[in-house]
């Protein structure tokens, strides 16, 4: 009898251990499952925001490429005379300026804005320094030349303005 | 439980990731970038800048713009590497109290740990902003060749930034974790890491409890930047030859050329030839000058051939020194942006005789691996929760021997999907469910996993019965397919084990085959679908005539009959365009006749409800099988 009792007790203890372990696991799994379910629900809610971001920036890559074309256009315009030899030439120049304006309008409608540089002090959030020039007439680090315009798309800087700043000393 | 962040603290760029839904996900910084430049500066207006913002003022402030601090962290000042780098750095360094390296930034001296801490601090702040919760615990990666002092210094940097560094793990190990290769026990893995400025190659052994580094090698001054330089040199030399002007003397032109060179190099990874187009690059007495050249991929490969050869040589040396033969290597992983170059992928594949792992973004894979380790440490990546995927699509054969997919490839399992199908012939009382695996459009080109028959379907015109077919894959990958007739409630099912019993190579082969045959397959499928459409229309038209014999005017009947004949003939000939034309014609006529019939019968209901269904194909009508109760049939995979 005694041996049988001992064996039974031992078996009971083992089963109790297993039961505790199983209950702990169950608790853990249920918690984890609920958390995962909640994470999924929250993820779905965040999905709307993500989709909106994708829509806003769907054109970002295309616009970044197109900015290079605008840069070239600006360079071309800089090298053309402001005024032509004749009224006829002026008409051609006017036409080219209008084409640039047309391109810029399309980009504005897509959400692109030019970064302000006139009279500004260098701000790394919006500008990138490509050179310095001695100039005592303006505060140090003032923007004195813009080599490439900078652009913002929906509050995100997609290309900083490339500028030359003043050096006082 | 706060999230643990995984950070790849790189020489030129750093990245961070966390676990979302059991997978590593890169977190963008506040500038919207997926990687953050490992640059710190104090600007001329005394502002501390980290990342891209620091880079934007580097040109005019080189002494106070600190980059590549990873080359110095944890090293002694007298270290030959440090002495070598000292000559190349634009900022000042000196020997610190503990023989370590101190860096001068804006009149103050900092340890390299303090500088690295500034980068980590920015990553921490940006991650907190993006995730909306505090980050305290991190896992940071470091090169496999880092010694104890360098690892400790990396850990210190984390602590200075206010982070609890749970672990510092090796970059190649992180890459292996990202690909889940830590499960490949007793295998040897080579990680080929060619980044912007450094090349590292490591040999790993996946031991039962850990990932051991068996050997490391590389070149601390070989990377994508060197490739860019070659392209730049070619552009400048070409222009000098053609125009007699050395653009190296023009910093602004140089800047444009540098960007154009990098862009061209990147584009040549996906195209065979690019145009390098820089109008108004400079000017001289004769007016403005434009730069315009074409560069072919083969030319780029020639320029950088010496670098590629060197990287393979160093790889060979490292594998040998680790005590292994090339054939011992089971897996290869590509890390670092420069490994996107097709030639490099080709050479690595040729060298090892196997396809390297490259599906995860090579700029992000280390951060993702760090996040996986972070997930394991925080308990989010319990083995028990790791989920598998269905490597190939699963479907059934439908009318015209078409493969109709129910579960798409790469779906995470466990998963259940079902779809309703119908019969192809009138009074069809049984359907055969032929379970297929594969991506091809036609059933014959796919792997057959099993077949079963559901009978006892009440006789009805074709397209009327509703048979719901459900696919269920459990977490162990066992597929169960069930077919149930909605009307009679009869069901039949099959259980297929080892439905993903194909090796990785076999799976890749099948996927590639599907890609190759995609156009051909889609044409075939279109043809079959056109035939099915034609058959269906002919059936409907003939039925309409038969059921409305008395009411259809003679001329309309004749027109219908002749158009049915024309469609049948076109279908016989197999002329797709003609079949389409005849289909349109008959549809129009049938519609007109239908309208007329409705005008005659004011309260008539439509003969068939329009349902969005596909039709099932069967071998033949089954009329002798007795009705049976639903039973499970265990099927071995064919």
Report on this model:
The complex is a heterodimer of chains A (169) and B (638). Chain A has helices spanning 2-57, 60-79, 87-109, and strands at residues 112-114, 127-134, 143-148, 151-153, 156-159, 161-167. Chain A contains three helices and six strands. Chain A is elongated and about 125 Å long. The longest helix of chain A has 56 residues, at 2-57. In chain A, strand 4 and strand 5 form a beta hairpin. The mean pLDDT of chain A is 89. Chain B contains 15 helices and 28 strands. By secondary structure, chain B is of the alpha+beta class. The chains are: A alpha+beta (169), B alpha+beta (638).
Quick summary:
The complex is a heterodimer of chains A (169) and B (638). Chain A has 169 residues and is of the alpha+beta class. Chain A is built from three helices and six strands.
What attributes characterize this protein structure?
heterodimer; A: alpha+beta; Nucleotide Exchange Factor Grpe, Chain A, domain 2; 3-stranded antiparallel β-sheet; 3-stranded mixed β-sheet; 18% strand; elongated; B: 638 residues; alpha+beta; Nucleotidyltransferase, domain 5; Actin, Chain A, domain 4; Substrate Binding Domain Of DNAk, Chain A, domain 1; 6-stranded mixed β-sheet; 28 strands
Q: Structural class of the helices, strands and pairings of chain B?
A: alpha+beta
Number of domains of chain A: 2
Low-confidence stretches of chain A: none
The greatest interface between two protein chains, and residues involved on each side, is: A-B, 28 and 27 residues
- Biggest sheet of chain A, open or closed, and with what strands and sense? 3 strands, antiparallel
Kindly state the percentage of residues in helix of chain A. 55-70%
Distance between the termini of chain B: 48 Å
Task: Work out the radius of gyration of chain B.
Answer: 33 Å
Report the CATH topology name of the largest domain in chain B. Nucleotidyltransferase, domain 5
